[in-house]
UniProtKB/TrEMBL annotation:
Cited InterPro entries: Na/Glc_symporter_sf (IPR038377), Na/solute_symporter (IPR001734), Sodium:Solute_Symporter (IPR050277)
Broad class of the protein's primary localization: membrane
TM spans (from-to): 6-24, 45-67, 73-96, 117-139, 151-173, 185-205, 225-243, 264-284, 309-335, 356-377, 383-405, 412-433, 439-457
Membrane topology value: Multi-pass membrane protein
Species name: Streptomyces malaysiensis subsp. samsunensis
GO cellular component, one term: plasma membrane
CDD domains noted in UniProt: SLC5sbd_u3
Keyword set includes Acetylation: no
UniProt-recorded name of the protein: Sodium:solute symporter
Annotated compartments: Membrane
Claim: Transcription regulation is one of the keywords in the record: no
Family indicated by similarity: Belongs to the sodium:solute symporter (SSF) (TC 2.A.21) family.
Length: 491
C-alpha cells in the first residue's frame, strides 16, 4: 500500500460521510427516511438494488468460491441474481403498489393483522444477522488496508455506516449506494477482472494449469446449487432489506425494469468473481483459506492507485449490504415490534418529525447492537446461513401464499411461520448449521402447515381480501399503516 492507495480509500470514506450529511437534508418525512420518498427513477433504483444484494459475501466470498471450485463457484451469486430477476419480473410491481414499509405490514394487510408481530420478530432476526455478517467483513478489509486489529476494524467500519445511515436514512443510503455501485463496477469488473486474467496468463494458461473440474459448470455439486436456490433465490423474494428497496421505486415500471437490470448485473458480477478466483488459484495455489484469495490478489497483483480503488470497491460491497440490512433491521424493530408492543402504529402524516426522530434512534441502537455482536462473533458463513434458513423456512410460504393463493388464512400463516421456523432451528441444532436438511425439511413443514391449517380454518374475511385486491391493483387507498393499528386488526 502506498500513499496514493491510502488517499483513495480515505477520500472514499470521507465521501460516504459527506453524502450521509447531504441525505439528512432530504429526509424530512417518514417516507423520505424509510423509502426515499418512493420516487427513485430507473438508474438510481437499479444501481442501489444491485449494490445492496452484492455485498461482502458476493465479492470476497464469490472470489473465494472461484478459488475453491473454479467457474462453478459463481453459483452462489448467480442464484442471488436469479432470485432478484424473479422478484422483479413477477412480484415487484405488486409489492410496490401496496405502499407499505415492511413485509409484516404486507402480511397484516393480506391476512387481517393476525401475524405481524411474529413475522416481525423473524424478519428482525434475519436482518440483524445479515447486518452482523457484513460488519464482520470489515475486519478482513481493514486488516489488508491499515493492518488494524480485528475489533478496531469492525468498530471503525461499523461506525461509518451507522453514522451516515442514522443521519439521512434511506436517502443517505441511496446516495452512498450509487457511489458504491460505480466504484464496485470500476474496481471489480473493469480493473480487477482483466488484470487478474492477464496476470494468470490468460484463459489458455489457466486451463492448462488447473484440473478440468475448475471449468465444469456443475463442479461445485448439484445438491449445493439446489440448496443455494432454496436459500438465496427464495431469500431475495421475501427479505425486508430487498422489499424496502422495492418500496423506493417511483412506479411499477421502475420496479420491474430497474430490478431486471440489477438482476442481470448480478449475473455478470457472479461470473467475474468466479473468474478472478480461478485466476488467483493459478497465481497462489496454496493459500491458507479460499476467502484470502481476494485480498491476496489485490495486494500482490495490482498497481499503485488501482489497488486502493479495488479495496475501496470491496468496502463498497460490504457497506452497501451493511447499511441496507441496518435500516431494514431498525425499521422492523421500531415499526413491527416496538410500535405493536406499545399499541401504536406507524404514521406518515401529522407527526413526521417525531417519526423520523424515532426511526433515527432505532438505527443508532441497532447499529450499536450490530457492532457489539460482530465483535464477539467470528464465523460469517454460519451467521449468514442461520439468517437465511430462519427467513426462508419461516416466512417464504406465508408471503408467497398470500400473493398467489387467496384461500390462505391468517391462522395458516401463523402456523407456517411457527412450524417452519422451529423445524429449521431444531434441525440446525441436530444436523449442524451448514447442513442441507434444515432448509429442506423446514420448507416442507412450513408448506404443509400453511396449506393444512388454511383449509381447516375459515377463509379470510371478504372485506379484508377486497382491500387487498384493490391495493394490488394500484387503486387509490390510504396506506395500511395510516388506516389500521395493531389494536384494531388483532396484531
Amino acid at each position: 500500500m502506498t500513499a496514493v492507495d491510502y488517499t483513495v480509500i480515505v477520500v472514499y470514506l470521507a465521501g460516504m460521510l459527506a453524502l450521509g450529511w447531504w441525505g439528512m437534508r432530504r429526509a424530512s418525512s417518514t417516507s423520505d427516511f424509510l423509502v426515499a420518498g418512493r420516487r427513485l427513477g430507473p438508474f438510481m433504483y437499479s444501481g442501489t438494488m444491485a449494490a445492496i444484494v452484492l455485498g461482502g459475501a458476493s465479492t470476497i466470498g464469490g472470489v473465494g468460491l472461484g478459488y475453491q471450485y473454479g467457474l462453478s463457484g459463481a453459483w452462489m451469486v448467480l442464484t442471488i441474481g436469479l432470485g432478484l430477476l424473479a422478484l422483479s419480473v413477477f412480484f415487484s410491481a405488486r409489492i410496490a403498489r401496496l405502499k407499505v414499509y415492511t413485509v409484516s405490514q404486507m402480511l397484516d394487510l393480506r391476512y387481517g393483522g393476525s401475524s405481524g408481530l411474529i413475522s416481525g420478530i423473524v424478519m428482525w432476526a434475519y436482518t440483524l444477522m445479515l447486518a452482523v455478517t457484513s460488519t464482520i467483513a470489515y475486519a478482513t478489509i481493514f486488516d489488508v488496508i491499515f493492518g488494524l486489529d480485528r475489533v478496531v476494524a469492525i468498530v471503525l467500519g461499523g461506525a461509518i455506516v451507522v453514522c451516515y445511515s442514522t443521519l439521512g436514512g434511506m436517502w443517505s443510503i441511496t446516495l452512498t449506494d450509487m457511489v458504491q455501485f460505480v466504484v464496485k463496477t470500476v474496481g471489480v469488473l473493469l480493473l480487477l477482472l482483466p488484470i487478474a486474467v492477464v496476470k494468470a496468463g490468460g484463459f489458455g494458461a489457466m486451463k492448462s494449469e488447473l484440473p478440468h473440474g475448475y471449468f465444469s459448470p456443475m463442479g461445485i455439486g448439484a445438491q449445493t446449487v439446489f440448496t443455494y436456490v432454496l436459500i438465496y433465490s427464495f431469500g431475495m423474494l421475501i427479505g425486508q432489506d430487498i422489499w424496502q428497496r422495492v418500496f423506493t421505486a417511483r412506479d411499477d415500471r421502475v420496479a420491474r425494469l430497474g430490478g431486471t437490470a440489477a438482476g442481470t448485473y448480478c449475473l455478470a458480477y457472479a461470473v467475474a468473481g468466479a473468474i478472478i478466483g480461478t485466476a488467483a488459484k493459478v497465481l497462489y495455489p496454496k493459500l491458507g483459506a479460499p476467502d484470502d484469495a481476494f485480498a491476496t490478489i489485490v495486494k500482490d497483483a495490482l498497481p499503485v492507485g488501482v489497488k486502493g480503488l479495488v479495496l475501496a470497491a470491496a468496502l463498497s460491497a460490504v457497506m452497501s449490504t451493511s447499511s441496507g440490512a441496518l435500516i431494514a433491521c431498525a425499521t422492523v424493530a421500531n415499526n413491527d415490534i416496538w410500535a405493536r408492543l406499545r399499541g401504536r402504529t406507524l404514521r406518515t402524516s401529522g407527526s413526521s418529525h417525531d417519526e423520523v426522530g424515532g426511526n433515527r434512534v432505532f438505527i443508532l441502537l441497532m447499529g450499536v447492537a450490530v457492532i457489539g455482536i460482530s465483535v464477539v462473533l467470528n464465523d460469517v458463513v454460519e451467521a449468514l446461513t442461520v439468517a437465511y434458513n430462519v427467513l426462508v423456512g419461516g416466512l417464504l410460504m406465508p408471503i408467497l401464499g398470500g400473493l398467489l393463493w387467496k384461500r390462505g388464512t391468517g391462522a395458516g400463516a401463523l402456523a407456517s411461520v411457527g412450524v417452519g421456523g422451529l423445524t429449521v432451528v431444531a434441525l440446525m441444532g441436530w444436523k449442524g448449521i451448514l447442513a442441507n436438511e434444515p432448509i429442506y425439511f423446514g420448507l416442507l413443514a412450513s408448506l404443509v402447515a400453511y396449506v393444512a391449517v388454511s383449509l381447516a380454518t375459515k377463509p379470510t374475511d371478504a372485506a379484508i381480501l377486497d382491500v387487498w385486491r384493490r391495493r394490488l391493483a394500484g387503486e387509490p387507498a390510504a396506506p395500511v399503516s395510516e388506516t389500521t393499528s395493531p389494536a384494531t386488526t388483532g396484531a
